[in-house]
Amino acid sequence: MLAVSDGEPTVRIDRWLIAARVFKSRTLAAAACDGGKVDVNDEAAKPARHVGPGDMVRVTLPLGRWRILKIAAVAERRGSASVARTLFEDLTPPEPPRPARTQVYRPMGAGRPTKRERRDIERLRGR
């Protein structure tokens, strides 16, 4: 860890992301930083950016999801999941509930669906 003038310990953002178990490896964390997927205090972060307690980190994840984390403590090494949970406060809003899937009912032994029924089934499945 690197100590700054005010006594607060800091660590590189790519190391902190793996210690907090946001990414599985430092390579993935560094690639996310280089790709603009990680913001620290609303500014794009490079892998070498130092962060400390109180900083806000926003990470864009695959499938359009994202997480907002407030750093509570710093660590350079990846530890257990229980230790990783103590490194941040998760401020990510809950995901909206998924719409209920409607079920297409076809009685047993009704044979193959007609062309119209097949199109209705595919429309419900989102194809």
Task: Summarize the model shown.
The protein is α+β, with helices and mostly antiparallel strands. It is built from 4 helices and 8 strands. The chain has a 5-stranded antiparallel beta sheet. Strands 1-2-5 form a 3-stranded antiparallel beta sheet.
Describe the structure.
The protein is an alpha+beta fold and 127 residues long. The chain has one domain: RNA-binding S4 domain (Structural Genomics Hypothetical 15.5 Kd Protein In mrcA-pckA Intergenic Region, Chain A), CATH 3.10.290.10. It is built from four helices and eight strands. It has helices spanning 13-19, 26-34, 81-85, 115-125, and strands at residues 2-3, 9-12, 38-40, 43-44, 50-51, 56-60, 66-71, 88-90. The strands form two sheets. It has a five-stranded antiparallel sheet with strand order 4-3-6-7-8. Strands 1-2-5 form a three-stranded antiparallel sheet. Helix 1 (13-19) crosses helix 2. The model is unreliable at 1-5 (pLDDT under 50).
Measured distance between first and last alpha carbons:
51 Å
Oligomer: single chain
Give the amount of beta strand, in percent: 15-25%
Number of strands: 8
Morphology call: elongated
State the low-pLDDT regions, or none: 1-5
Structural class: alpha+beta
Radius of gyration: 22 Å
User: If classified by CATH, what would the architecture be?
Assistant: Roll
The largest β sheet comes out as: 5 strands, antiparallel
What would CATH call the homologous superfamily?
A: RNA-binding S4 domain
State the strand order across the main sheet. 4-3-6-7-8
CATH topology (fold) name: Structural Genomics Hypothetical 15.5 Kd Protein In mrcA-pckA Intergenic Region, Chain A
How many domains, as an integer? 1
